[in-house]
Amino acid sequence: MDKVYKDSQTHYIIAIDGPAASGKSTTARFLAEEMKYVYIDTGAMYRACGLLSKQLGISLNDIPAIGKMLETIEIEIVYSVNGNRIMLNRIDVTEAIREKDISRLASDISQIGIVRDKMVDLQRAMGKDGGVVMDGRDIGTVVFPQADFKFFMIADVDTRAERRVAELKAKGIEADFEEVKKDLIWRDKNDSTRALAPLRKADDAIEIDTTGLTIEEQVNKIREIIKNKSYA
Ligand code: DC
């Protein structure tokens, strides 16, 4: 590869935020791989919290029980060339956190202050030395407001629903377009209207509309922006 970035010398923090299925994670993963950076999927961490609350039968209204759950929770991202694995209390939950009901549960549990505080602390610890591409909803606004690069990815809802259906199909799961779309709309509203760290574009984030773009084109756009600033 030609010297696109000052790769091995750079330790940027790259934040990619945006609504569900806007292309964040695919782009972040590709970019991290190219730059030999670590990819941190913060949505997976909230999903792991949601999954654990379900396994333990904890109601999201029971804040003391959630607090107790958080005292011992261990979430680890194990980096692997074939895609990161998400470990919850040392058990691989990479597939389990993608179950349909976990999406809504993650969105709901992420509204709780003590959950956010704990996840944000973990995310800051994971990213403090830089060399990371982190995707989520509040990375550029709350977790790393001083990030070197902030991107906010958007795409129209039909495109996002189509992508999600195709993604599920690739995993052998049949999904109904209208149902997927309804779910995305619900989640966007839930995530962007909450009181704490709502989904919002940071004032200094660069918006990338991925409607009609291929993955390659999305990554190219971001790569160009990083490259131009790196050499400026
Ligand atoms: O990125 P995702 O769809 O896997 O995220 C699942 C949920 O987690 C999302 O609906 C809201 C929450 N989340 C959050 O509140 N803050 C983040 N940084 C990432 C995700």
Description:
The structure is a single chain. The chain has 232 residues and is α/β, with parallel strands linked by helices. The chain has a single domain, classed as Rossmann fold, CATH 3.40.50.300. It has nine helices and eight strands. Strands 2-6-1-7-8 form a five-stranded parallel beta sheet, sandwiched between helices. Helix 2 packs across helix 5, helix 4 packs parallel to helix 8 and helix 7 crosses helix 8. The longest helix is centred in the C-terminal third of the chain and has 17 residues. The protein is globular and about 50 Å long. The protein starts with 12 loop residues before the first strand and ends with a helix. The N terminus is likely disordered. The site of 2'-deoxycytidine-5'-monophosphate has 14 residues, from helix 2, helix 4 and helix 8.
What are the defining features of this structure?
Rossmann fold, 9 helices, disordered N terminus
Briefly characterize the structure.
With 232 residues, the chain is α/β, with parallel strands linked by helices. 49% of the residues lie in helices and 15% in strands. Residues 1-6 have low confidence and may be disordered.
